[in-house]
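Worked Example 4.2. Consider the chain below.
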Amino acid sequence: MFSTTAGGPGAATTLLNVAVYTQYGQSFFGTASALGFVVTLMVIVTAVPLMS
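Applying the procedure from the previous section yields the following structure tokens:
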């Protein structure tokens, strides 16, 4: 998204994986863990029906 919107406005185009990385880098480990869990659940919910 950065290449198309130059990262703006604000954090409107921040992807979840980038948010996890940013939160972890700022030592917000709880937030990073929660976001990582959400990303994992989203992948599972998407992948399981495709595998059936």
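The first helix runs from residue 2 to 5. DSSP finds three helices and no strands in the chain. Compare this with Example 4.1 before moving on.
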